[in-house]
Every structure is written in structure tokens, then in C-alpha cells.
Design brief:
Layout (H helix, E strand, L loop, with lengths): L5 E5 L3 H13 L3 E5 L2 H10 L4 E5 L7 H10 L8 E5 L4 H9 L4 E4 L4 H11 L9
Parallel strand pairs: 1-2, 1-3, 3-4, 4-5
Helix pairs in contact: 2-3
């Protein structure tokens, strides 16, 4: 039996981190959290993850900057990133996809939809419940 896919959940909102972590863990994923962009980048260079769920609106280093740095770095370029935000404008979603994100989810999100979109974004080579 292979290990479950590992997700790094990045958000400065503690409640979002807790709720989303429980939801994804309940769906069978290994979930780690980072409350800032800086910590996310540090963690991503210390240990392997299969996907990043990245909030856009964070203090100091926002999700756009984190995404840019991940896509510029050879070690993390191929890592799938799903952006998530309270901003539901189409141009934000298009911008995220143009910058290298694989998906964009609007908060508040439907829990079933979140789990489905995470599953769809994971590489076929990630561990899992196949």
C-alpha cells in the first residue's frame, strides 16, 4: 500500500487551515499546513509534496509571489498548485492559470467540489487510493 498523496495547505487564516486540513485528511490525504508564503517555500524545499493548495491574500508574501517563485525554481516547477481565494473574478482565475496554477477555487468552497478538484489536480504518479 502506497503512502497517501501529500498536500501542503498554505493560508494565513487559522480556521481555513484547520477546516480544510480535516476535510482533506478525511478524504485520505496527508496534509501539512503553512501559515505564510515564506514558511511554505521553506517547507517545500525541505520535504516532498504532491500538491500545494495556496491562498492568494496573505500578508508579507502573497500567493502570487509564492507561485512565481515555485514556477521559477527547477526543483518545484512541476509541482501542481491550486490557488484559492475569496476573489471570484474570472480575470483572477485566468491570471492564476497563466502563471502556472493548475486550478483556482473560490472560498467559501463546496467541500465535495474541493476534494474532487484536488484529486483531479494530483499527478497520476502520486500515491493514493487507486
Amino acid at each position: 500500500m502506497s503512502a497517501p498523496p501529500r498536500i501542503l495547505l498554505v493560508d494565513d487564516d487559522r480556521e481555513i487551515l484547520e477546516m480544510t486540513s480535516l476535510l482533506l485528511a478525511g478524504a485520505g490525504y496527508g496534509v501539512e499546513t503553512a501559515p505564510s508564503g515564506e514558511e511554505a517555500l521553506f517547507r517545500l524545499h525541505q520535504e516532498p509534496f504532491d500538491l500545494v493548495l495556496l491562498d492568494i491574500n496573505m500578508p508579507r508574501m502573497d500567493g502570487w509571489e509564492v507561485l512565481r517563485l515555485l514556477k521559477e525554481d527547477e526543483a518545484t516547477r512541476a509541482l501542481p498548485v491550486i490557488m484559492f481565494s475569496v476573489n471570484f473574478e474570472l480575470r483572477e482565475k485566468l491570471h492564476a492559470l497563466q502563471q502556472g496554477a493548475v486550478d483556482y477555487i473560490t472560498k467559501p468552497f463546496d467541500t465535495r467540489v474541493l476534494v474532487e478538484r484536488v484529486a483531479g489536480a494530483l499527478p497520476a504518479t502520486a500515491g493514493g487510493n487507486e
